[in-house]
Each structure stands twice: as structure tokens, then as C-alpha cells.
Recover the amino acids of this structure.
């Protein structure tokens, strides 16, 4: 239900402030879940946001692949 609503909003109102705040909120929840999973597994990555996570791993993947 929520996914359908968000995808509808993205398609029809991509610059909606409400949509942007929902996406930011969901991203923060995702980051917190990843941090908590890391704590449980003893692998705590110091993430402040999903973008920090993607930058970190994107850089490492690019480095490993030689790009």
C-alpha cells in the first residue's frame, strides 16, 4: 500500500515536499536498521545516512573493480 502510494507520487509529483520528506524519513529508518543489524552482528558501520553507506561501498567497489 505504501509502496504503491510512493511510486504513484513519484510518477505524478516528483518534486513534492511531502514526498521528499517521506523519502528522507524512510532513508533514515533504513540507515538505522542497517546500523542496528551491524551492532547485532558485531559489524558496526558508522553510518549517518544511506548516502554515506552508498558512498563508502560505491568507492570500495569502484576501487576493487579498477574504475
Amino acid at each position: 500500500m505504501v509502496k504503491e502510494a510512493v511510486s504513484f507520487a513519484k510518477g505524478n509529483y516528483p518534486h513534492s515536499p511531502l514526498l521528499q520528506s517521506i523519502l528522507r524519513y524512510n532513508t533514515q529508518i533504513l540507515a538505522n536498521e542497517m546500523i542496528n543489524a551491524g551492532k547485532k552482528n558485531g559489524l558496526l558501520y558508522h553510518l549517518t545516512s544511506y548516502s554515506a553507506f552508498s558512498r563508502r561501498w560505491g568507492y570500495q567497489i569502484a576501487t576493487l573493480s579498477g574504475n
Observations:
- Residues 19 and 25 are 10 Å apart (CA to CA).
- The helical segments are 2-12, 17-40, 50-65.
- The chain has one domain: 2-65.
- The radius of gyration is 15 Å.
